[in-house]
Each structure stands twice: as C-alpha cells, then as structure tokens.
Amino acid sequence: MRIRYFFYFLLLASPIAAQSPLSAIDWLSNANSKFQRSILEITDLEVDKTNDIQVSTLNSSEYQAIGLLPIYVTGIPTTIWRNSSFDDLEYSFKTLPTFSYSPIQELVYSLLLAEARPPLNEPSRYAFLEVRLNKLLNYGAVDPAIALVERASPVPERMIPQLFDISLLSSNNFPICEPIFQNTENRDLQAELIYCYARKGDWLTAHLILETEKVLGDLSDHEISLLSRYLEVDFNVDLSALLPPRDSITHLEYRLYEAIGEPIPAEYLPIQYSQSDLSGENGWRAQVIAAERLSLTGAIPENQIIGIYTNHSPGASGGMWDRIKVINDLDAALDDKENLEKSFQDAWKVFKETNQLTVFAKLFGLRVFEENLSPKSKKIVANLLLLTNNFKITEGYWDPSDIRFGLTAGDFSQVKVSDETEKIILQIFTEPSVPFLVEQKLNQGKLGEVILNALLQFELGIEGNLKDFSESLSTLNLIGLETTARRAALTHLVLRK
Hints:
Helix content: 55-70%
Low-confidence stretches: 1-60
Structural class: mainly alpha
Mean pLDDT: 84
Number of strands: 0
Strand content: under 5%
Distance between the termini: 38 Å
Largest sheet: none
Number of helices: 27
C-alpha cells in the first residue's frame, strides 16, 4: 500500500504526469521550461545572500533535504524554505485550507512532498518536517506521511511515537513496530510496546508488560482497562466508561476499540482516520464514505475511487447510493456501448448537484470524450476535461476567440473576452506583471512564501476578490508555474457560479 501511494504522489509532480490518468500536477514538461529557469535564478540569488549555507556542510544532517520528490522531478529547489521564518511557515501551513480547485490542492502536495531543507531558524531538528507531516495528515494523506518520516532514516528517536501513530491510520492496518522494539526502555511507549507484541503474536510478553505497568503506574487506568480487554485478560470492563471524547481519541485507542469489537466510525473522526476504512474491512459503506472524503482533499488516486464505487451494486437509494448507481451504469455503458448518452447525462447531473464535478471529470472525462456523443454531451465532456490535467486535448474543440482556446492552446492572439473575469485572465497571460510584494520576497529568497501566499490569494479570488484573483495567477504564471495557472483559470471558468 505504501509503495503504491508513493508512486501515486510521484506522478503528481513528474514530467510524465501529463500522459497519466493518475496525475494531478504538471510541474515541468521539459528541461527548458520557464519554471526551471526562474527557479534556478532564484536559487542562485538565495545562495549568494545566505552566509549560513556557505559556512556549513550541506550534507550535514542539520541541513538534510528530506522529501519524496527530488528536484529533478519537481524543479523545486531544496532551499525553497531556507530564508523564511519557521514561525511564519508553521502558521501558514497550519492555516492552509483544503483548496476548492484541484490544480491548487495538487500544488500544495508537491510543496509538502518535495525534497527541502528546513528554514535556517528551525527551533529544533525535524521541527519543520513535523509541520509538513501534520499538514499531510490534515489532508488524510497517511501513506505519503509515513514515507516522508522514513526518509529521515534512521528515524529520529523523537519521531518514533509519531511514526507509530501514523502507521496505525494506514489502510494496511499494520503498525510500524520495529522502532518500538528498539526502544523498549522508553517509559512513554509501553502501551505501544504491548500492542506491538500482541500484533506480533507474542501474547505472553504483552501480558507480562501489562502486569508490570499495573504495578509501576506508567499507564492510565483507561489504557490499562482497554489493553486488558484487548489481551482478553479482563472481560469485566465497562466499555461505555472507556469511550473517550471523539476529539481526544488517540490513534492507538482507535485501533484498540476496533480490535475489541467496539469500533468508532471513522466518518465521525478527522479525515486522517478515513484511510483505515479503504481496506473494506469495515464494510462497503464505510469504504465509499472514506473514498469520497479523501477525494475532496486529493489524497486518493482516481483509479482507486472507481474501483471502490464499482465493487458492488447499491442496495439502497439516495445520497451516495445514487452516485454509486450512476457510476456503475456509466461504467457498464462505456464497456458495452449501450445507453451511453443517457448514462452519461444521469451521472453528470448527479455529480453536478453534489458539487463533485472535478471528481467525476477525473473518473470519466477522458473515457467519455473519446466516445461518439451528441453535441450537447460533447460540450459537457469538453468542459469536464478542463478540470483535469488532460485539458490540452480539448484545444481543437474551442473557437480561437474563446478564452478556453487561449488557455488550452497557449495562444491568445484571437481571444475576445465577455466579462471581467475573462478580461483579467487574458491580461495575466498576455501582459503579466509582478506584484511589488512578490518581487520583494523573491529578492529575499523566499520563494516558498511567495507560492503559499499566491495559493491563499487564489482561494480569496474565486470567492469574488478580483484583485487577489489577478495577483495570484500572475504570480504563479511569472515564477514558472504557467501550467498550474492555466489549469486554475480553466477550473474557475467551469465551476464559477
């Protein structure tokens, strides 16, 4: 599972992503891109101005660049965060929302997963890594978070509890116990140690440690009661008294309640818990709910979503069951070519009503576009493809005067605008300008901050602030993220109210 997710997120930022149905971000299409040139220029400027980097050993663990995606994949320099304040970055990442539009959310993942060195004023070793991990978990991206911790190998002792906790949320339902076994003397990890020995099948050792902890008093009464029930050494436990508040449950408690037959539904917990339901062990309904929650943050590949949707036939109607039915019908129609027109229209209407057109577009846009449909349906599909990384294949569908032609073809010479939003988009790609504050931060070597601020501005922009909308897209375009800017503009044209 972890390997599968690693390659999924690798595709998010790789040059081959443009041809892959699993891709979510398109950073560099070739070695001569404007983005690569601009990034290298900024990197050189930053190194010239930073004395700390010149007097330090770059391969020192203190300056280790940790990430899943190297610079030759993303084009992101390892120094992207070096000149920024740790406190500023910590606040920025904590307050980053789940972005409304897929191209922006995908860019966030690339920033989180790129190989990067911490800011110069990092208060303690791996503090910035923990900031990135917490954000990944906030989006439900559990397996990439595990892989990111493991890239700090050997796993720092202070991060062993966090790695263990994260592993409990993985859909493979197997904890990472080896670091726990190597730190048996850590009095803060005794509950974890008991659980790991039990999962290993060494119930006797687990029982002996539990009995010892009853005497030493390092575990709370709550933990002892729950572990006793888990090890089947005490059945006289009031389970109702064991239930913690949902906002304070630990990852270990979550798994223990599941193990003793009193599972706490993941749908009522933070999204990171939803990954555990993807295995299907808690039923198809829980699996579908988990997939839909994670799809909204981009933390699950589209091919996995379609696999879950089509795993069974719906046994009820309304809500998600309607989405399952229309997806199953459309999937069948694409295979046997019967009732394709009706099946597509039905599915499109259901997903439009639930504001999940982007998910629908990624699931079926390319497949349906290749079919022979009515002009009405063809236009809908062409617009849906604008929500995906396959937007360029619709170039021939649009009139050269249409702003959508300009964005798909990169040619705005004949474009005529029809409203203020289109006018702004045209200006961004034909007469770009760098906002003063952006130029200032770039001169300070704070590229990461520039990108984060642009993303936040864009979210405000799509809510109606045209100044923020213009500045955010201009920034993304001028620092070399032209494809992301074009995709974001296209997405807004399709989804705006």
